[in-house]
# Entry
Amino acid sequence: MNVNELRFAKRFDGITGSAIREIFKLLARPGMISFAGGNPSEAALPDEEMAWIAADVLKKDGKRILQYGATEGYPPFLEALKAYVGPHFGIDMEKNGVLPTTGSTQGMQLLLSALIDPGDVILVEDPTFLGNMQSMRLYQAKLVPVKSDDEGMDTDDLERKIREYHPRMIYTIPTFQNPTGCTLGLERRKKIAALAEEYGVVVAEDDPYHDLRYTGQELPTIKSFDKAGWVVFLGSFSKVISPGLRVGFLAAEPGILRKCVIAKQGSDLHTGLLNQAMCAEYIRRGLLEPHIRSILKGYADQMNTMLDELAHMKTVASFTRPEGGLFIFASLDEGLNATKLLPKAVERCVAYVPGTHFYPEGGHENTFRLNFSKSTSEEIRRGMRLLEETFSRA
Amino acid sequence: MNVNELRFAKRFDGITGSAIREIFKLLARPGMISFAGGNPSEAALPDEEMAWIAADVLKKDGKRILQYGATEGYPPFLEALKAYVGPHFGIDMEKNGVLPTTGSTQGMQLLLSALIDPGDVILVEDPTFLGNMQSMRLYQAKLVPVKSDDEGMDTDDLERKIREYHPRMIYTIPTFQNPTGCTLGLERRKKIAALAEEYGVVVAEDDPYHDLRYTGQELPTIKSFDKAGWVVFLGSFSKVISPGLRVGFLAAEPGILRKCVIAKQGSDLHTGLLNQAMCAEYIRRGLLEPHIRSILKGYADQMNTMLDELAHMKTVASFTRPEGGLFIFASLDEGLNATKLLPKAVERCVAYVPGTHFYPEGGHENTFRLNFSKSTSEEIRRGMRLLEETFSRA
# Structure
């Protein structure tokens, strides 16, 4: 039989990989100004320190680091995590455990594996993160958008939809959301924790941008209001140390955590021990907090430059004003189509992601997402003017 | 609602985690001689070289290594892999691609994700690898054992079962199988490749022990006989460089590979770039082949010591005589129960894995798996005598 006749699993029905993948391949072109990714800036990647740390941990504990480890985590990292995560995110470490994950991408997958049968409903922000929507669809979940605004999910609409759809999960990125950059308000955070307990729905609180705040007041996590164990916190070191190391974690009550451990046994057995050891040592040496402080100033300048440029663009109808994170979300004048304009922008050597891909039900063709962390202020000014040229000639 | 009332996904029905987990926790006890794991020996873990290599690759390419990478792989590793995998495993790299995976554990998961809907049949050796059986069950596959002997899967029984069950996958560990240590014969390898094409069934060829041959002649992979693209080869650097790094790969024709890439986007986005870079550099410096040669002699001695001891054990009715790998599989006299005897063995500070856990349909309570790579010859002699004491007093 010809292998082209092979039938794949039903979970791939309707999943073709990203529509914008072909265009993204052009982004490696020299001179391209890309606002399309979600990459940290080069300056934010501590390569020199990590070269020393990698050698040091391998010299000190190499035989254990290169050997098989426990799915539950490399002990020095677990210790560092528990000491860090509890106070930093307001998580009660008496009632919750942590599990190192291979990026928070894996944390999401483990949770989907633990909870989702085909057809189960997940309530999500509208718009929400593209990558995790694809993960949810691979678990054959039905995604139902909850009305969202500048303060995140509308909790009245959320409660209505909990009653109507009996969801298995509520997925939220509460802080400097991807793609909008918006932050869930304090009262809504409390309300979501309360609704989770009242209706018995797991909340996946995906909070990778938490520490990238440039202005305003830090808000407590949803998890910090969780008394009953219905909130699972997904954390990541991708935005504050390095995405290439693929180290994240999941904090949850013991029953859910145990299912995630079993799912992880079949996923990658354990997260690389060197990766865990390097993050542990980076934290243990007290490098994390000063490193975060050192990157905030640059990111804030880049964001403000981009916001200034947006304010002067005649084709831009509106845009979000985030207090942190990596993204700004903008709308073009009605009738302009960000997907159709993308190839023209790329021709001019500037790129973004069309907003429609972040909407569970599509539409919103005039929206687009901009990332400001990967480009210098100079590149941002130049890139935004190229965008204005592109849009105004449409 | 109390979180104890949370209903998990159906894929966890009947999956309770390993029955022997509680006993395994005792294995960290000082003085324990463990034949239970599948760990490389400490001497086989190149910690000193890796400390240098980690620092070198981070100094040379640290900004790229710490940044996000492509799901398809870190370019220098892909290059090294293609050059290595093609000639080493007899894989046609014109017709096949490779994908770095976070251990071959993940390779298996990606393939299950690509192919298996609940209720689909996977034909497996009898016995077969515990860990991947659990992965298959988490994908709600139905596991059907194929009659197996000292030369692996009986291909007549395999063909009968293909006709009867219309499986979506055939899973085999052809070389120094886990748990038996047995190797699939040459004619059977050819036959499996032919059956896969004839009936349109994907073969997952899981070959992590391939290079650990102590005696006899190397056999070509099943994949080397695959003209039509039905065989997927799962490789790993866990047994020849380091399991803690979690680096494996998958070689497959483009259509299957593409689905695995999409599944990997939602699994961990990409394998750690430092992990890929270190393996690439280890290969590039020509360290891999001499390293493998350097560990074979010790492993061969350890295996032969264990085989000698087994030959003198009155309670052991039979055992396999592998030509390589990490495991020997043995049977006690009828009536002796290896699961019931395990706590008594652990009391005497020696451990193994009861064989019943490797049989898809259970039973075979008198069998057990022994690992010889993690213990010195001296420990093996002592441990085997403790086992004989345990078994003979039962």
